[in-house]
Amino acid sequence: MALVDTKAKRQTEREFHSAAGAAHADPMGFYGALGAIKQVLADKPEIYLVNEGANSLDITRNVVDMRAPRKRLDCGTWG
Q: Which of 4, 10, 49, 70 gets the highest tally of CB atoms within 10 A of its CB?
């Protein structure tokens, strides 16, 4: 079984999600919305981001960079 380079895989996923978030589709889709959120948070790092949902949690972590500690609130097991 071949070993997977997890750092390279994460970087590839991050690049894909970042490019998808930068696209300006009309109507706006999921990645476009995350791209807009990313732009707002870049200018206002004091804002808290509350994130919920299994796939949206994972994708948002890859698309939206947090610039300040403890500003992302992810849901727990029971929401």
A: 49
| Spans of all domains in the chain | 6-74
**C-alpha distance from residue 70 to each of 46, 49, 73 (Å):** 10, 10, 8
Each residue's pLDDT, cut to its tens digit, for the chain (79 residues) gives: 455 678 888 788 777 766 766 667 778 888 888 888 888 888 888 888 888 777 888 888 878 877 888 888 877 766 5
Tell me the C-alpha to C-alpha distance, in Å, between residue 79 and each of 22, 52, 70, 75: 29, 8, 18, 5
pTM summary value: 0.64
Cα→Cα distances 57→6, 12, 34, 52, Å: 19, 18, 11, 6
> Which residue is it, tokens 């750092």?
7
